[in-house]
Amino acid sequence: TWTLYDNGLFVVEGSGAMTDYPSLAERPWDDYLDDMTAIVISEGINHIGDYTYRYAKAKAVTIGKDVKVIGKHAFDMCFNLEQVVIPEGVTKLDDYAFNNCYTITSVDLPSTVTSIGKQAFHYCRNLTSIELPSGLVYLGRDAFSSNDGLLSVTLPEGITSISEGLFENCSNLVSVLNIDQVTSIGNFAFRNCDSLQSFYIHEGVTSIGNYAFEDCDNLVSITVATNNAKYSSLNGALYNKDQTTLIAVPAGYVGEFVAPNTVTQLAMYAFGNCDKITSIVLQDGITTINRYA
Predict the structure, then answer these.
(1) Nearest to residue 226, comparing CAs of 202, 206, 246, 248?
(2) How far apart are alpha carbons 257 and 166 in whole angstroms?
(3) Are 224 and 233 in contact (CB under 8 A)?
């Protein structure tokens, strides 16, 4: 059951899982979304259904202690949402759960959260900090993309993959900490992270996707651990291990770039957006220049 009070407080009571609403018009409170000032999910409810509060105008959400899952698009495009209280016991924030909630400034996630779906906090552009719980093992594609306010993120030990577009367009992100355990970096993972100045790739990384560091305007150096079996670096640029393929020159590289004589191939976007380079010297052994290099 649900009640909307005169002051805009919207309270949902009951037990078990809430209904999913794949068609927005099916929601019984659809005509009252603009009247909501705060939402309370009462105890007894264990699953917030898909699309339940999309477009609601509420500024605050309080979630009951029995909730385990926040469904897909549950609070998607709640443009006025400033405060969310997520209790201990919640284990999963599904895809797009808080997508486009761009007035949220901080989120406190409980220790029980293990999974954050794709675009769960996409374009929460005023989100300045988020502490990821130690038990987290999954971060979906673009989970924190386009968050201009995000300055630094510390990954928990269980996150071994930086998924596709995870921090794409986070223009003020200066550091991602505790990445020793990471083995893969997805496509577009740090694209357009203009405040990154350097990035260290640890020995365990075995996969780096396309355009992972593209258009990071102030990135001047990518450094790879010497004992990494798949990749290497030289003078701030990223290569495969035997330096036969130039994978990426950081967009902040300044001056003349000289490729070593071992290079035979330039990867796609190897020099993407490198507008500070004054000249490029390639050796005679180049046999393949991929498109857009």
Answers:
(1) 202
(2) 29
(3) yes
